[in-house]
């Protein structure tokens, strides 16, 4: 059924179709609309015996999900930003225990300074947690990825994080098509846990493992995550039969004959594709590669998609301080020898405009793009603050100074 | 488990593969120690053993347990001064277990239900003459008969029982009870020749292979008191004998009893029962020094008997008895004060001791006499081979009679009591049996005592407030009061269940329950427990929490312990590792608690590896050492 | 108070069992077929109170639920000594997640069981004092407040033992730990600190809160059994002496726990919906000193100089407990 619907509500609908059994949640913007919608579904009895639990923290929420999942309950939660970080310990634990929890991350910046707007710093910070990370380009993809995520998670006994850009997607009203319940039920069988707390077959889950087996445990987790790259396309095919829409680990766009390809994740792909269309029309050979599965990283698929490119630009909505790009490192590893630029853009909700992208791509194709570029950086503001800091030890809080400068004040 | 995630998910109970017994330095063991009641019993009974049966309502089994030692439960249950109860550890907790009353209950049950004993021993064809049908003689006869010997008892009295009949008043020991228990002995096949005074021992002994002389101390000792005409003076033994015979002496209304022992009490109380309205005991010392048992004295006082403390009789003249007041000197001896007082009395009964008539032994070759007693060896044999003596006529007590005697050979005064005599009889029987079988009699080796300090008394329950007072009263009244009767079943059961079972496991399950390592196996009712040393770490909790002190820790063999450390802790590859561990006597797990379970209380908590690291190291080192599991 | 009076005198309700008692009246631990939820071969120190307490509690819970039980365990000694790969000592369905999240994990398990229509399977969570009063308190409070159907058991050994005896929020005043050394004017842990978690639990108004020790098995079992008759959040706080951390002899574990109660330092009581409903009264009053003397962690109160000021202050705590909970059987003769 196709309808105009807010992204969060659409995701909630999709999750509801997956018949979750336990939904622990803790409020944090911008994911709140999702769990609000689900709490209503549970309260009305639309989700049967599903338990909605108001957790006391994100740490608690994920812990509740861990307990529920280990006891054979299909578990779902959503979070963002600080919440995801507060979960950090539990994320690693859920992954280590191989619990197929599905979680939506409504991507948002991390403080300080506190910022509720979108970027990918939160999810990127947990890229090593052992969770599968899937990034949605738009709300339709977000919906479809959730359906896929439950199936994938439970088949491989891995937790899956579906990342969708906070506000940009979660709060955007778009046309979204949702499959019917019977179709989802056919695609997603009831949860069959690989291990479960059951008095009929008692086991001890979560043993202490020493040096003698820890490497093996970790290796097996690695192998299991790599299996996503095999299974995802296959399951996506099954899902496509239901939805008519095909998902994959990467989504190339006009890469054929592209001299320069921009690699990106999430909603910025939409603007990028528009920009690329314009540039192509102008005869500039550029393309776009969307990375849907960031963890595990689809090295082969990326390498194949980039095979014809002479130059790669990785557009990132997060970066690792003191280094630069995060995704760039993986892209470079997939295409060693190919020139690879990192463009950090859209931090803390700053709009990534088509104009800026155009300019950046023009620079790229003319070999004027720096290896690391912060798109739309207010250079003067930064320089002023740097000068201030160099002059006075007690130069004051950077964030407040920058805001002041931007408003044109003088200090 | 192949379908479960590797390493992080494990099949249940798999730690049984880890034998933590290798950590142990000391090991717990079950022990049985001799309880103080048994230690104290002159008859050689082990009250705890039969109380254990009573606790389970096994009254007949309990009675049979007693009968292996003492053929007079109903008698002893009445007349014994129960040193077992004085020794009872429970006395230090609340009040001693009423062992004596339970014994009487069992004895009475046996009579009521007609329980009998039989001898399973094949006849030996050996003949034993027992002279004296008192408690020592009958006890010896009983045991000899059980051993298959042919026994003849000869006694000059009209009826058997000796002092049990002629010394102890009927209000303390009803004659039907005595008769029943003696009849049971006779029914075993013991020949009883009454009204038979043995005068020529060698002649009578010719028909026998052994003789046991147990004629008792039947003569009342006399003291020299100037007595004028008309003074009616007699000794307590004679008086009690005549009372028992049904021919009580005419004593009049006012009777003075001279002496401070149990016989004095019996005499005074008997005097009241045969018509005296006024019975006064004259005793030269103070109450705390009186040889009579407190219970006898208090009952006498309850019955209206008065006592003149610190007094001696200096002269008896007609109905006037002159009494001199005494004072105790520094060493506790009474000294005359020169102050006098007169009492009026119709009769004076002397209860100043008893003596044995040993004339039948005086001419026997080799038999030595020491004053009023017969000289015997530790096996109760006199200097004449085959002639044994026991009961009140010997001063020593047989070491064969009971471990109690063996354990307390210097501490216990040889009292002239029925219980002591019963023990002597049993000891003599054992010695005579050994003599007849041509082997040396073996004294019972002393065993380790189960002292109060070994008990963990926390676990002994306080009797519920609603039950305790009634039972306490019942216990007190019924012990000696024939009118009320003995304990009934419920009170006997209660009393028995107060037993702390000192030094003997009574299956309270504490060891089984408190082991943090589940290393105790419960074998089922009556079978006790077993320690699984594969898992026992030697913490000692089972020993500490054993209520009865029936467990203790013993060191593991040093060599074995060293080998375990060697193998498990460093694989024998670390130079000096073994020495370090040995010197430190630390635990094999590096930085864990010391092996004995004693930790470094004073030295500050040592810097240590976290448990995780510690255990990893341990496991690694075990692998290195080839310690396969 | 929980625990049935037994008409039995030689050894009554204080012992584990007795051959003379009707089997139904013996403790669960006397049962030769007890669950042994924590079985042999675990790596707890000699005389470990926590190992003992855990078996007591879980066996009682297994009994009460007919074996329909799942257990969630916080990180700590109990977890480490019971499940080092490749061996586990548990014989119940058991899950270890993290140090601070056992209450939430357990609540999740309960929710999943309810969602699956398998509510007859009950959930028990267990943690040490660190996992309960410190790092796990947020999750625990959430579990209480939501009244999740979980029995949470804290095995309180009054410090972080697994990591080498550091102070926790449950460490008593004056106790020496690796981070409250016995030096300076006020040696050991400071006064006026620590969290009274049973009181905190009661403040949540949850159906059941109780304290117990490994020294009173019957009481402990009765409380677990009672807790299992109730639904919603329940809290059981069990004192479990740690020979290693307390510097007590391994054979004294139960004795020390007993003295903690008998001295008044550890009140044993139970409460329903925030109100105290029962108190285990002192049976044989012990002095605070008798309790402290057995433990190396208090040695500095006696050597090299006796610290009467500190002892008085500890005694005042005991007196306060005795007054607050009415711990004396006959208060008028106190």
UniProtKB/TrEMBL annotation, chain A:
One of its GO terms (biological process) is response to oxidative stress. The keyword Oxidoreductase applies. The keyword Oxidoreductase applies. Belongs to the pyruvate:ferredoxin/flavodoxin oxidoreductase family. InterPro entries: PFOR_II (IPR033412), Pyruvate:ferred/Flavod_OxRd (IPR050722), Pyrv_Fd/Flavodoxin_OxRdtase_N (IPR002880), THDP-binding (IPR029061), Transketo_C/PFOR_II (IPR009014). It comes from Micromonospora globispora. Keywords: Oxidoreductase, Pyruvate. PANTHER family: PYRUVATE-FLAVODOXIN OXIDOREDUCTASE-RELATED. The gene is porA. This is Pyruvate ferredoxin oxidoreductase. Residues 258-354 form the Pyruvate:ferredoxin oxidoreductase core domain. One of its GO terms (molecular function) is magnesium ion binding. Residues 14-222 form the Pyruvate flavodoxin/ferredoxin oxidoreductase pyrimidine binding domain. It holds the Pfam family POR_N.
UniProtKB/TrEMBL annotation, chain C:
Pfam families: TPP_enzyme_C. InterPro entries: PorB-like (IPR051479), THDP-binding (IPR029061), TPP_enzyme_TPP-bd (IPR011766). It comes from Micromonospora globispora. Residues 167-189 are annotated as: Disordered. SUPFAM superfamilies: Thiamin diphosphate-binding fold (THDP-binding). Residues 75-238 form the Thiamine pyrophosphate enzyme TPP-binding domain. The lineage of its organism: Bacteria, Bacillati, Actinomycetota, Actinomycetes, Micromonosporales. Keywords: Oxidoreductase, Pyruvate. GO terms for molecular function: magnesium ion binding; oxidoreductase activity; thiamine pyrophosphate binding. This is Pyruvate ferredoxin oxidoreductase. Residues 170-182 have a biased composition (Low complexity).
């Amino acid at each position: 059924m196709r309808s105009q619907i807010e992204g969060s509500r659409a995701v909630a609908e999709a999750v509801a179709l997956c018949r979750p059994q336990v939904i622990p949640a803790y409020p944090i913007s911008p994911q709140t609309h999702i769990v609000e919608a689900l709490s209503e579904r549970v309260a009305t009895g639309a989700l049967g015996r599903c338990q909605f639990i108001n957790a006391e923290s994100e740490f608690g929420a994920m812990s509740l999900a861990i307990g529920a999942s280990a006891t054979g309950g299909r578990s779902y939660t959503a979070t963002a930003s600080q919440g995801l970080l507060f979960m950090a310990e539990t994320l690693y634990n859920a992954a280590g225990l191989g619990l197929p929890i599905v979680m939506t991350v409504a991507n948002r910046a991390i403080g300080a300074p506190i910022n509720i707007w979108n970027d990918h710093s939160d999810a990127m910070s947990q890229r090593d947690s052992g969770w599968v990370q899937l990034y949605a380009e738009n709300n339709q993809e977000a919906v479809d990825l959730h359906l896929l995520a439950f199936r994938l998670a439970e088949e491989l006994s891995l937790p899956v994080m579906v990342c969708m850009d906070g506000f940009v997607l979660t709060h955007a009203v778009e046309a979204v098509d949702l499959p019917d319940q019977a179709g989802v039920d056919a695609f997603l069988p009831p949860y069959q846990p690989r291990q479960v707390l059951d008095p009929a077959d008692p086991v001890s889950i979560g043993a202490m493992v020493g040096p003698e087996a820890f490497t093996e445990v970790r290796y097996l987790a690695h192998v299991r995550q790599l299996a996503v790259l095999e299974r995802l396309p296959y399951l996506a095919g099954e899902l496509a039969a239901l939805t008519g829409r095909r998902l994959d680990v990467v989504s190339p766009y006009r890469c054929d004959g592209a001299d320069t390809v921009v690699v990106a994740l999430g909603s910025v792909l939409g603007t990028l594709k528009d920009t690329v269309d314009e540039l192509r029309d102008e005869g500039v050979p550029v393309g776009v590669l969307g990375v849907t599965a960031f963890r595990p990283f689809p090295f082969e698929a990326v390498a194949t998609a980039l095979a014809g490119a002479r130059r790669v630009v990785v557009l990132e909505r997060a970066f690792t301080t003191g280094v630069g790009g995060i995704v760039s490192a993986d892209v470079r590893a997939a295409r060693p020898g190919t020139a690879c630029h990192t463009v950090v853009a859209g931090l803390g909700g700053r709009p990534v405009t088509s104009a800026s992208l155009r300019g950046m791509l023009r620079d790229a194709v003319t070999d004027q793009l720096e290896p690391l570029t912060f798109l739309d950086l207010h250079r003067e503001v930064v320089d002023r603050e740097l000068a201030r800091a160099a002059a006075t030890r007690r130069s004051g809080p950077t964030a407040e100074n920058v805001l002041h400068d931007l408003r044109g004040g003088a200090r | 488990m192949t379908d479960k995630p590797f390493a992080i998910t494990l099949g249940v109970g798999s730690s049984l593969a880890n034998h933590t017994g290798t950590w142990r330095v000391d090991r717990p063991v079950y022990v049985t120690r001799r309880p103080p009641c048994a230690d104290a019993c002159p008859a050689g009974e082990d009250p705890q053993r039969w109380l254990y049966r009573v606790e389970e309502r096994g009254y007949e089994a309990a009675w049979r347990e007693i009968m292996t030692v003492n053929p007079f439960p109903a008698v002893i249950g009445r007349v014994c001064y129960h040193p077992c109860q004085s020794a009872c550890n429970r006395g230090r907790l609340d009040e001693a277990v009423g062992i004596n009353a339970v014994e009487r209950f069992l004895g009475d049950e046996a009579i009521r239900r007609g329980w009998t004993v039989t001898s399973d021993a094949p006849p030996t064809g050996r003949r034993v003459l027992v002279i004296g049908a008192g408690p020592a003689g009958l006890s010896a006869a009983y045991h000899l008969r059980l051993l298959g010997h042919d026994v003849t008892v000869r006694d000059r009295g009209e009826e058997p029982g000796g002092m049990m009949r002629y010394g102890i008043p009927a209000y303390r020991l009803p004659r039907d009870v005595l008769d029943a228990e003696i009849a049971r002995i006779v029914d075993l096949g013991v020949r009883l020749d009454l009204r038979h005074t043995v005068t020529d021992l060698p002649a009578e002994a010719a028909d026998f292979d052994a003789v046991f002389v147990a004629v008792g101390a039947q003569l009342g000792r006399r003291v020299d008191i100037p007595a004028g005409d008309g003074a009616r003076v007699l000794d307590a033994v004679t008086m009690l004998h005549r009372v028992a015979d049904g021919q009580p002496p005419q004593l009049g209304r006012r009777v003075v009893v001279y002496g401070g022992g149990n016989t004095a009490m019996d005499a005074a109380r008997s005097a009241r029962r045969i018509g005296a309205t006024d019975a006064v005991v004259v005793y030269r010392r103070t109450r705390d020094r009186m040889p009579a048992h407190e219970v006898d004295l208090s009952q006498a006082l309850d019955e209206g008997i008065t006592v003149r403390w610190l007094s001696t009789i200096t002269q008896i003249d007609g109905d006037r008895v002159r009494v001199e007041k005494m004072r105790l000197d520094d060493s506790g001896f009474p000294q005359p004060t020169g102050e006098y007082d007169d009492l009026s009395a119709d009769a004076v009964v002397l209860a100043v001791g008893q003596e044995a008539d040993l004339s039948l032994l005086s001419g026997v070759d080799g038999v030595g006499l020491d004053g009023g007693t017969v000289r015997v060896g530790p096996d109760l044999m006199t200097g004449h081979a085959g002639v044994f003596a026991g009961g009140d006529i010997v001063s020593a007590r047989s070491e064969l009679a009971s471990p109690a005697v063996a354990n307390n050979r210097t501490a216990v005064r040889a009292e002239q009591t029925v219980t002591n005599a019963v023990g002597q009889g049993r000891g003599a029987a054992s010695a005579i049996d050994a003599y007849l079988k041509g082997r040396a009699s073996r004294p019972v080796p002393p065993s380790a005592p189960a002292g109060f300090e070994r008990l963990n008394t926390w676990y002994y329950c306080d009797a519920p407030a609603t039950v305790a007072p009634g039972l306490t009263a019942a216990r007190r009244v019924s012990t000696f009061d024939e009118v009320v009767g003995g304990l009934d079943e419920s009170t006997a059961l209660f009393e028995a269940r107060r037993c702390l079972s000192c030094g003997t496991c009574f299956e309270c399950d504490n060891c089984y329950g408190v082991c943090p390592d589940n290393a105790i196996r419960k074998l089922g009712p009556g079978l006790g427990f077993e320690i699984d040393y594969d898992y026992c770490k030697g913490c000692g909790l089972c020993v500490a929490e054993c209520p009865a002190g029936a467990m203790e820790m013993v060191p593991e063999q040093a060599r074995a312990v060293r080998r375990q450390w060697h193998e498990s802790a460093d694989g024998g590859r670390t130079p000096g590792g073994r020495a370090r561990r040995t010197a430190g006597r630390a635990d094999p797990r590096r930085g864990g608690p010391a092996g004995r379970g004693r930790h470094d209380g004073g030295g500050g908590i040592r810097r240590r590896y976290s448990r995780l690291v510690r255990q990893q190291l341990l496991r690694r080192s075990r692998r290195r050492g080839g310690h396969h599991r | 108070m929980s625990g049935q009076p037994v008409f039995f005198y030689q050894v009554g309700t204080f012992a584990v069992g007795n051959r003379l008692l009707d089997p139904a009246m013996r403790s669960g631990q006397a049962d030769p077929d007890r669950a042994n939820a924590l079985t042999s071969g675990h790596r707890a120190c000699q005389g470990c109170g926590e190992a003992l307490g855990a078996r007591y509690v879980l066996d009682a819970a297994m009994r009460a639920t007919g074996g329909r039980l799942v257990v969630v365990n916080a990180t700590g000694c109990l977890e480490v000594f019971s499940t080092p790969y490749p061996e586990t000592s548990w014989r119940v369905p058991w899950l270890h997640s993290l140090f601070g999240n056992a209450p939430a994990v357990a609540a999740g398990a309960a929710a999943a069981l309810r969602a699956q229509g398998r509510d007859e399977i009950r959930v028990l969570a267990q943690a040490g004092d660190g996992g309960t009063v410190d790092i796990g308190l947020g999750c625990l409070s959430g579990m209480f407040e939501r009244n999740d159907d979980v029995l949470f058991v804290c095995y309180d050994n009054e410090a972080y033992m697994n990591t080498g005896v550091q102070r926790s929020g449950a460490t008593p005043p004056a106790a020496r730990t690796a981070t409250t050394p016995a030096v300076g004017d006020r040696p050991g842990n400071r006064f006026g600190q620590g969290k009274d978690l049973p009181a905190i639990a009661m403040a949540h108004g949850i159906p059941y809160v109780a304290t117990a020790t490994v020294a009173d098995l019957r009481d402990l079992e009765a409380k677990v059994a009672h807790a299992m008759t109730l639904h919603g959040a329940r809290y059981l706080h069990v004192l479990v002496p740690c020979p290693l951390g307390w510097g007590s002899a391994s054979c004294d574990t139960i004795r020390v726990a007993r003295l903690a109660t008998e001295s008044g330092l550890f009140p044993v009581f139970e409460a329903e919906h925030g109100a105290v409903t029962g108190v285990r009264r002192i049976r044989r009053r012990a002095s605070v000193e008798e309790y402290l003397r057995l433990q190396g962690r208090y040695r500095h109160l006696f050597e090299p100089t006796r610290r009467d000021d500190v002892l008085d202050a500890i005694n005042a705590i005991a007196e306060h407990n005795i007054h607050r909970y009415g711990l004396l059987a006959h208060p008028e003769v106190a």
